[in-house]
Amino acid sequence: MADIRSYMKEKEKKARKQTNYKEKIAQHKLASVYRILLVAAALAALVAIVVVQYRQHVYTEYDVIASVEREIASGSVDVRLGNAILTYSKDGAHCTDAKGNVRWNQTFEMQDARVAVSGDTVAIGDYNGRSIYVANTDEILGEITTTMPIRDIAVSAGGYVTAVLSDANLTWINTYEYNGNMVYEGQAHMDDSGYPLAVALSPGGELMGVVYVYVDAGILKTTVGFYNLGSVGDNVSDNFVSSWLYPDMLIPYIEFLNDSTAIVVGDGKFDVYWGSHKPVPMAGDLYSREIQSVHHSDRYVGLVYMSDNGENRYEMIVYDTTNDFDMGKKSFYFDMDYNDIFFGKDNFVIYNETECQIVTLGGVEKYHGKFSKAVRLMLPIGNAYRYQLVTDSSIDTIQLK
Where are the domains of the chain? Predict the structure, then answer.
């Protein structure tokens, strides 16, 4: 009996030790979790402070961290081509990278060069001419020869080119591969669809948007039509998948932001079309003032007006095409005369030959200052407030500070 009691007491003692041991382990684990949570909270607070300081930080000057010399011909024009620089004139065009290396050079003779850019790809054609050169940032891709005079051109990032061609009694709207093979042939009659005032291609080349203008009983009307040049369009007549009428309104501007978003801008109406196969208008805005210019990225659209508040010269309304327009519409005022405006990831840049202004989409002015040399073209490099300034004699890489 005594042995049984001793055995039971020893068992209880061992059980209590085991329980205490488990409790100590649990307490240790809980303490470790608390320490991890405290460290994570401290790191999160630190990151939040850094992010707030970064967003609120204002730059006052810049350093030139790299510079290469360049030479240009008189009368030439510089255009952004992806991360490179396209320079063209009546006598030819060439593409230069950030280090000043000429990637390709093409000579030609054009009286009135028309240039269309999509991402890294460019098409250059002569108004009333019959040749279109297609290239990207690395090389000349090909040359397209048309049988009729060129009136307008559009290009996709993949090298498809749409050309509006003039004929005696009608207008042709033909789309080609960069090697000249025709992939679509269409016609426009003034008595039927109207005259093609503007044309655009989606980056992938599957969608083509055309703005037709015509007069009906003395009233100017515009139709925006979309064509699917892929397999979806093969199942419908003339690849025509959708159209929308704008009575008593001129729509001179159409552009694709990406493969599923297109915008049209007219004399009182701005619409966004969505759809990767059959675009339809999903959002828009009305206005009564005259638009001075249109600027966009693959997400944001900025419409610039003369300001009506008496304190600033210009007002730009910025739309976020990924959000509801009532939530994505923001207004920004500025006084600079500008050569161009472009969007970054979370800001926009306004610049002319002598100065630039950088403003976040949250309304914080990050930089407003003068250039040390006259600038022909300004290009972004990443998101660290680093840019390239293209001048008559150099390509300068700058870092704001």
Answer: 1-56
